[in-house]
Sequence to fold (423 residues):
Amino acid sequence: MNVIEELRARGMIQDIMPGTEELLAKESVAAYVGVDPTADSMHVGNLATMMLLVFLQKYGHTPVALVGGATGMIGDPSGKSAERNLLDEETLRHNQAGVRKQLQNLLDFECAGNPARLENNYDWFKDMGALDFLRNVGKHLTVNYMMAKDSVKSRLESGLSFTEFSYQLIQGYDFYHLYKNTGVKIQMGGSDQWGNITAGTELIRRMDGGEAFAFTCPLITKSDGSKFGKSEGGNIWLDPAKTSPYKFYQFWLNASDDDAEVFIKRFTLLPLDEIDTLITAHREAPHQRALQQKLAEAITVMIHGQEAYDQAVKASQALFKGSKEDLMALNKSELLEVLEGVPTYTLKRDGHEGELDLVSFLSTETGIMASKGEARRSLSENSISINKEKVTVDGIITEADLLNGEFILVQKGKKNKYLVVVE
Fold:
């Protein structure tokens, strides 16, 4: 199996130029994927195209990641309905550093033979004047050619600035520069980039008489129609400071069965035969969610490391399967993280002389339940747990019940959770 055959088997090929597969089968090739540093972290949407580089390196080819310091100042119109905000150089430099750090978790920059490379297109654009660019580059592509691209046509009615209109020409020059100066012969990206990518192969043909190649991967959409890479809190970032390893782990763990079958092929390096075995076993016992667990493990370890994965599993099990002791073992940040989104109530510490009866605690003191009568009924029905332990109608709350000295987890039945913050 060659790299294209594996990518195709994983559902990672959308468009491919004739001759690309033959070139990759014949020799070791340098190929690149670009990412504009519009934030100081990549998100899981970026990961979809970065995995093309990962598989490329696996098969002995040279992966090149292009951080678009110059193009990031303009903004790609592809897939956008409105003009992007332009970023200043200081912000872009900061963002580039964050992206570069994350790429080092995915690609090997030190291996012998085919180490990954990082490029920044600001390096070749910073000293190029507008007249030089228009004279030496712009004359090679006609306006008719550029307007035929989907990324342009889709914006003609709503409006497209010359800045964004020029993007495909600038990205095309990136490909030409890398082809001419560093031997890059292939560009890869998401399917929405096909127009920009082929502008590059056309520039190479017209400016140098050379032949370059390209392929794209399908854009990922979730089976329920919602946008991939988003949660209720926004983007799922690769930076642990923006999206914690626990939330990152939970994002993949909560994938639907249909999505998990797609994601495990596109976002992990697990062998295809192992994936097929996992999928078959999962379909026979989907309630065990073995496929989602393996998916979440493989990606979390790849991005955040084994220790962060182990901690995410520990926190998850403490909430869903663990005991009071497991909850007590979580630090404050871990506890708040696993309980994010749970309805929160407050309890005043003063005036209770170190203890409080559960009926008052659940009703008049916190308001979790509307009345003392409702609280008594729920307690009598044995449906209330405090910090994962069942409690009775004559029970009390004491200082010893506080998690990290200030929290209490209340559960009614299996699904209803409430967090009490003791002030």
Observations:
- The chain has 20 helices and 14 strands.
- Residues 79-84 have pLDDT under 50 and may be disordered.
- Residues 18 and 213 are 8 Å apart (CA to CA).
- The two ends are 62 Å apart (CA to CA).
